[in-house]
Amino acid sequence: MKYYLVYSQLSQQADSAHEIHDVMCANAMANLGYETILTYPDNPSSDLDLGSLFSPFNLQKPQPFFVEFYDVQDQLNILPLFIPNLIRKGINRFNLSSLVCKYYLPFHLKNKVNVVHTRNWNFAKAAVKNKILTIFERHYFADNKFEAEIVNDPYFRVCITQSELTRQSMIEAGIPSEKVIWLDNGFNQNFLERQPKDALNWREQLLKKNRKKLVVYSGALYPFKGVDLLIDVAKLLPNIQFSVTGGTEEQVKHYQELAQSKGVENIDFLGWIVPRSRLISLFQAADILAHPHLSGKSANFTNPVKFFQYLASGTPLVTTEIPPLMSFKKTIPMAVWCPPDQPSSFAESIEKALELYPRKTTGYTENIEYAKGFSWEKRAEKIIKYLPELTTL
């Protein structure tokens, strides 16, 4: 048996959307019935497990914390690669991937996998050189030219980006145009489950001071995500409750203090929600889901996972007009769009959405049905088209 292998460098830190993306790619392939492994350099608690260094191919099922943190299903196998702390401390994160490429890949993985899927260029190059079919994902603009002998090799099957602008950047950096595509991200199909009782519990917990409407934002708390703007929006709408999930403890504290300094009392910062599956009922609890991304360079390549989770929840959304999402503007049934960077416009859009789309316990089926085309499994099916060998292996 040979495996579809997804390689990542998991830190298991809650603010890494790209790591969540890697896990979901592997989880989706496993859900489609392909024997799939998610592998990553492990952070061991002890240096004594030398057996794992010399005989590392010991597949595992994810531990409960991993399942709760990433919300994965039962079909996925994981393969933590043992890196002794003594070695780990002596090299940086990038050299760590070189160690994996030069030792684990050729000697312990090569003969057990038929496909490698990764965002790590070092690992992608090594896979091609070892004659393994390779799917490479690049979510940012290219910094340098890609090696022609790698990207033109038949084992280098496709480079996946998340926007047309990023795709063009890859072509300009040397990848043949027929080998570069862009795909939207997806959502875990668990988000289609209706959880009305848990949603009601969230509303009872979050709605304060007789406020009747709840707006929810979920995701990383970086400035370009529009969190500062959302605080200003909340100040303009004092009778609406805002709840924000995500962020490190330091980021949460920063935004709590910022809101307090601006005299905004109707916005809460909840931190990361674990188990991640609790987001399902939280999204269903909201009257409106907010996507307040700012303009700028990052807006040209971002393709947020939360956007598709929002859709699957059936809750109406208010979203800013950024390039990677503009193809959805005329097709999403229950959404209000507005220009970025303008708190007043975003506030007006929330009021408009509340008027047009009153909350439904069952969610808006139009958004739910629309979302079904954007699950991680649907994304994986598009990738498989570049791997006709998988039908016979």
Textual characterization of the structure:
With 393 residues, the chain is α/β, with parallel strands linked by helices. It has two domains: 3-186 and 375-391, Glycogen Phosphorylase B (Rossmann fold), CATH 3.40.50; 192-373, Rossmann fold, CATH 3.40.50.2000. Helices cover 39% and strands 17% of the residues. The chain is built from 16 helices and 13 strands. The protein has helices at residues 17-31, 51-54, 64-70, 85-90, 93-109, 121-129, 148-151, 164-172, 196-206, 227-236, 249-261, 278-285, 305-313, 343-356, 365-371, 376-384, and strands spanning 3-7, 36-41, 77-81, 113-118, 133-137, 156-161, 180-182, 213-218, 240-245, 267-271, 288-291, 317-320, 335-338. The strands form two sheets. A seven-stranded parallel β-sheet has the order 3-2-1-4-5-6-7, with helices on both faces. Helix 13 (305-313) links the parallel strand 11 (288-291) and strand 12. Helix 5 (93-109) runs parallel beside helix 6 (121-129). It is globular, with a radius of gyration of 22 Å.
